[in-house]
Design goal:
Blueprint (H helix, E strand, L loop, with lengths): L1 H11 L11 H11 L4 H14 L3 H6 L5 H8 L6 H16 L8 H5 L6 H12 L8 H11 L8 H15 L4 H14 L18 H4 L16 E12 L2 E6 L8 E2 L2 E3 L5 H13 L7 E9 L3 E11 L23 E3 L1 H6 L4 H9 L3
Helix pairs in contact: 1-11, 2-3, 2-8, 8-11, 9-10, 9-11
The structure holds adenine (ADE).
The site of adenine has 9 residues, from helix 2 and helix 11.
C-alpha cells in the first residue's frame, strides 16, 4: 500500500514551489505558512516572502526595529504570531545552529513556532528522516484506511492513527511519504465526497470496504458562530487615515479603530473611539455603510463611521507596534502608500475598500 501511494504521489502531485526545492529554510517557511492556511492562499505570499528573505540570515537580520518588515511581508496571511515566531526562530538558528536548521525532530521542536506536526514535516521533507506528521487531514486518511472510529478530536482515535502513521513513516522516501499522505487528504480523501475510484489506497481502505468512508472520522458537533456587532472608525486627515495597533492580534497588525457594540448606540461608540484617539474637538463621525465579516468563530457585522478631521496634525511617523511596550498609545496616520506596506487586518481593508478609497 505504501508503495502504491508513493507511486500515485509521484505521478499526480501538484506542482508546488516548496516541492521544487531542497533548501531546508524554504521548506520550513512553507510549513509555517501552511499551518492553518490553505495551499492556494499561501502560494503568492510564499514566493514574495522568500524573495524578500531568501535565507535564515537575512530573516534573522530583520532586527526589532525592522520586525515590521517581516510582518509586512506576511501581510494578508493572518495569524501573525507565525511571522513573529519565524523571525525569533531565525535568530535562534543563527545563535545556536550556525544559521542552519537542525535535522532532528527534538532540536526542531525547541524552535519557536515548531510543534509536533511541523517538526515531523520538516525532518522528513527537508532531511529525509522517518517522522510521522499527523494533522487533521492525515487523521482522516488513516482513520479511513485503518477503519478507526471515533471523533477527530478523540484521544483514542489520535492514538490509533499516530501508531499507524509512525509505523508507515518507516521506509524509503520519508519526505515523499509525508507529502503523499497530505496530498491524498487534500485532493482525493476529501471530508465529504471522497474520490475513492481514483485512490491508490482504495483496495486497502477499511472504511471504503464498509461502504461509508465519509463517516470517518465522526463529525464534531457544530458550534454556531457568535454574532457580534462592531463599529469601525475611518478618520481621515487629508490623504491620511488613522490606524491603531490591534490588541486582538497582540499589536502585531494595524487596524482601523474599532469597538464592540454593546448597549451603547453606534454613533456614541464611534464618537467614543474618536475622542479617545484624537480628543473631543472637531466634528462627529457619520455613518458610512456596513459590511459583514466571518471568522472561524464569529459572524461580525461592522458599521463604518467616518469623519474628516481637516487640519489635524497628522504627522506621527510610522513605527512598528512594539510587543514589549503594550501600553504605548501608538496611533498612526497612514497614507495609502504606507498602508500597502503595513500588516493590516482584513476587516480594515474591507472597510476602506467599501468606502472606495
Ligand atoms: N500542508 C502542510 N504541508 C504541506 C505540504 N508540504 N504540501 C502541501 N500541503 C501541505
Amino acid at each position: 500500500m505504501r508503495q502504491r501511494i508513493l507511486s500515485w504521489y509521484r505521478k499526480h502531485k501538484r506542482d508546488l514551489p516548496w516541492r521544487r526545492t531542497r533548501d531546508p529554510y524554504a521548506i520550513w517557511v512553507s510549513e509555517i505558512m501552511l499551518q492553518q492556511t490553505r495551499v492556494e492562499t499561501v502560494l503568492p505570499f510564499y514566493e514574495r516572502f522568500l524573495h524578500r528573505f531568501p535565507g535564515v540570515r537575512s530573516l534573522a537580520r530583520a532586527r526589532e526595529a525592522r520586525e515590521s518588515q517581516v510582518l509586512a511581508a506576511w501581510s494578508g496571511l493572518g495569524y501573525y504570531r507565525r511571522a513573529r515566531n519565524l523571525h525569533a526562530a531565525a535568530r535562534a538558528l543563527v545563535r545556536r545552529h550556525a544559521g542552519r536548521l537542525p535535522e532532528d525532530r527534538a532540536s526542531l521542536l525547541e524552535l519557536p513556532g515548531i510543534g509536533e506536526y511541523t517538526a515531523s514535516a520538516i525532518a522528513s521533507i527537508a532531511f529525509g528522516r522517518a517522522a510521522a506528521a499527523v494533522d487533521g487531514n492525515v487523521i482522516r486518511v488513516l482513520a479511513r484506511i485503518g477503519g478507526h472510529s471515533g471523533r477527530r478530536d478523540s484521544p483514542a482515535l489520535r492514538g490509533a492513527v499516530t501508531a499507524m502513521a509512525e509505523s508507515l513513516a518507516q521506509g524509503p522516501h520519508p519526505g515523499d511519504w509525508t507529502q503523499a499522505l497530505m496530498e491524498l487528504g487534500a485532493t482525493l480523501c476529501l471530508p465529504r465526497e471522497p474520490l475513492c475510484v481514483r485512490c491508490p489506497a482504495s483496495r486497502f481502505c477499511v472504511a471504503r470496504l464498509r461502504g461509508s468512508p465519509e463517516r470517518f472520522p465522526e463529525a464534531q458537533p457544530a458550534v454556531a458562530p457568535r454574532e457580534e456587532r462592531r463599529v469601525v472608525l475611518v478618520a481621515t486627515s487629508g490623504r491620511r487615515v488613522l490606524l491603531v495597533p490591534d490588541d486582538a492580534d497582540e499589536r502585531a497588525t494595524w487596524t482601523l479603530p474599532y469597538a464592540r457594540l454593546g448597549a451603547s448606540t453606534a454613533s456614541k461608540a464611534a464618537r467614543g473611539l474618536l475622542s479617545r484617539l484624537v480628543g473631543n474637538a472637531g466634528p462627529d463621525p457619520d455613518r458610512a455603510g456596513s459590511f459583514r465579516h466571518r471568522t472561524f468563530s464569529h459572524s461580525l457585522t461592522y458599521e463604518i463611521w467616518s469623519v474628516e478631521l481637516r487640519g489635524h496634525p497628522a504627522s506621527n511617523r510610522p513605527a512598528p507596534p512594539d510587543p514589549k511596550r503594550p501600553q504605548r498609545p501608538g496611533s498612526l496616520w497612514a497614507t495609502s502608500h504606507e498602508l500597502e506596506r503595513l500588516p493590516v487586518r482584513s476587516h480594515t481593508l474591507k472597510a476602506l475598500r467599501s468606502l472606495d478609497r
